[in-house]
Amino acid sequence: MLQAEPVKKVAEQAVPVSSNSLFHRIRQKLITRGEWQLYLLILPVVIYFIIFNYIPMYGIQIAFKNYSITKTIFEARRVGLDYFERFINSPMFSRLFKNTIILSLYDLLVGFPFPVIFALVLNQTQSKRLVKFSQTVTFAPYFISMVVLVGMMYLFLSPSSGVVNKLIEALGGDPIYFMADAKWFRHIYVLSHVWQRTGYQAIIYFAALTSIDIGLYEAATLDGASKLQKIWYIDLPSITPTVVTMLLLAVGRILNVDTQRTLLMQAPTNLGTSEIFGTYVYKVGLLNNQPSYSTAINLFQTMINLVLLIIVNYTSKKLTEESLW
Question: Which of 63, 120, 128, 140 could form a disulfide with 295 if both were Cys (CB 3.0 to 4.6 A apart)?
Fold first, then answer.
């Protein structure tokens, strides 16, 4: 009887793994002493997403109801797709869609390559001190508050006392009111975004580059490869999955332009290019007290992002065999 238990364990291990036994092993692994600390570590992140991303989905239904703060969601009268039809037929739809798409694509085309290029250059830099200094200098702007950043932009670009306009006047030009001119809004938005985010976003690609086998570089050096050839034949292929993943995620947020930055940079004279989905939703929902209409606009924006993400993911999977799912 004392030897029955060990024999039973050996017999169970000899049996081929079935779906039930596999599920049992996974369940047992989750509660083992060496694993529960890892799940406890990730628990705050899971709770965060449940509270701030999943529970608020309950309020999406007000996009299909005539909701007001004096009633509960269940008491509100259902109106179906009326708010969606109202928005699509409104004169603001084409303007918002155009401004959001142009600004987002401009930001993606200019801002997305910068962190990749910056990480590739740092990876080929021999001086460790220069690498650390460059990372610190480019990462620091990420911690600047958006309100402070836009305030700095107003000071630097001021037509009367700004450094930029002083330089223009010194070269014989006329001062320009950059922050109030609609044609300058997109350029200032994108350049400020690149300046603030490049160092932060480059960390992901730099981390992927550090996992490359050092033997590949040594072999390339023996073959007489230049730094540019090492980047092209070693670095880029190694970080392609990371680049594709980040690109897919960026396309999935194509209509989610930084609302806070845009709203702070807005002026009555640049609304022709600065009025986007996010700022319009804020004005309609909070300032004009139309929660149902603003929710419908926001839900419409989210659905467009989802459709674009699915299309781009499918295309990427066919062309590069890299995808999110």
Answer: 63
Is the pLDDT reported for residue 194 higher than 90?
yes
Q: Tally Cβ neighbours within 10 Å of residue 176.
A: 15
Is 9 domain-assigned? no
- CATH at 150: 1.10.3720.10
Task: Answer yes or no: is 205 within a domain.
Answer: yes
Q: Report the mean per-residue pLDDT for the chain.
A: 86
Structure tokens at 18: 């079935």
- Flag whether 42 is in a domain: no
Closest-CA residue to 265 (of 176, 177, 201)? 177
Q: How many domains does the chain have?
A: 1
pLDDT digits (tens, 9 = 90+) for 70-99: 888 888 889 989 999 999 999 999 999 999
Q: Which domain holds residue 263?
A: 83-319
Q: How far is the CA of 259 from the CAs of 86, 155, 160, 277, 296, in angstroms?
A: 23, 21, 28, 8, 17
Residue 322 near residue 316 (C-beta atoms within 8 A): yes
- How far from the centroid of its chain's Cα atoms is residue 244's Cα? 13
Q: List the alpha helices (DSSP H) in the chain.
A: 4-14, 19-30, 36-49, 82-89, 92-111, 113-123, 128-139, 146-156, 163-170, 182-210, 214-222, 227-230, 236-251, 259-265, 271-274, 277-282, 291-319
Is there a domain that residue 277 lies in? Answer: yes
Burial class of residue 243 in the structure, from the number of CB atoms within 10 Å of its CB (0-12 exposed, 13-18 middle, 19+ buried): buried
- Taking CA atoms, 156 is separated from 18, 128, 177, in Å, by 67, 33, 11
Which burial class, exposed, middle or buried, applies to 110 when counting CB atoms under 10 A from its CB (0-12, 13-18, 19+)? middle
Q: Of 34-43, 86-95, 175-184, which range is least confident?
A: 34-43
pLDDT tens string 227-286: 889 999 999 999 988 998 898 888 888 888 889 999 999 999 999 999 999 999 999 998
